[in-house]
């Protein structure tokens, strides 16, 4: 691990050493996804200009797009008032952030259908995941 | 606690019974804030059409705007692909979501200043917090 820069001190990582990171599309303003970063991931994001997360399931750095090719070029890094959420404004390569082949992971909307509230998929699949991760 | 509706089962609450909730402005697309909800808060949000969170510091329901008047009218409720983050598209009353008197809590941007990376406040204070919480 490299020496941490001063700006990192303003970021409040949780007890697992992680902070939630929101990726927002710079063009459409859509929220693409939410993932997690540890200090190393956030440092690499800032230095490389590409979004790097920490995969909790795989317990390792996750360079977004490493298998899909759908990298995220970071345009802005922002921090919220209490320092515990990071926002990345990104250019989403391929226009697909979600592993389901959709632009955004937030493709389900709560709607009244036949008298009951249900989650409805409201965004199209732009590319078959089998074609993304082959 | 009331009986939980079926749609709630798709939401993955953490071990503390909480899920992170992003509030996004319906007009500007700006991310206003990130807070937490428990089942009760999310249920009240869906039923009332106003954003209700769970305050971790005060350990109670937080009806956004209860002291500031800056309520959030919920236009859409969305859920991400793995069900562990909720997105509210809202109309922000007063155009101020942050307790600092700014539109958004994400007012700090990482910038190169005099050769070093620093967090810079890039958004204006729209109203003095002393005037909001008097």
TrEMBL record, chains A, B:
Its EC number is 3.5.4.19. Keywords: Amino-acid biosynthesis, Cytoplasm, Histidine biosynthesis, Hydrolase, Magnesium, Metal-binding, Zinc. Pathway: Amino-acid biosynthesis; L-histidine biosynthesis; L-histidine from 5-phospho-alpha-D-ribose 1-diphosphate: step 3/9. Binds 1 Mg(2+) ion per subunit. Zn(2+) binds at residues 81, 98, 105. Mg(2+) binds at residues 80, 82, 84. InterPro entries: PRA-CH, PRib_AMP_CycHydrolase_dom, PRib_AMP_CycHydrolase_sf. It is an enzyme of class 3 (hydrolase). Catalyzes the hydrolysis of the adenine ring of phosphoribosyl-AMP. HAMAP family: HisI. Belongs to the PRA-CH family. Homodimer. This is Phosphoribosyl-AMP cyclohydrolase.
């Amino acid at each position: 691990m490299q020496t941490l820069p001063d700006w990192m001190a303003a970021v409040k990582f949780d007890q697992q050493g992680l902070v939630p990171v929101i990726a927002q599309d710079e063009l459409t303003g859509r929220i693409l996804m939410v993932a997690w970063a540890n200090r190393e991931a956030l440092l690499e994001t800032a230095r490389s200009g590409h979004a790097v997360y920490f995969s909790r399931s795989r317990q390792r750095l996750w360079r977004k797009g490493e298998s899909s090719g759908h990298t995220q070029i970071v345009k802005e890094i922002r921090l919220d008032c209490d320092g515990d959420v990071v926002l990345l404004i990104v250019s989403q390569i391929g226009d697909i952030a979600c592993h389901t082949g959709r632009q955004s992971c937030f493709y389900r909307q709560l709607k009244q259908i036949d008298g009951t509230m249900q989650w409805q998929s409201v965004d199209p699949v732009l590319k078959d995941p089998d074609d993304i991760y082959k």
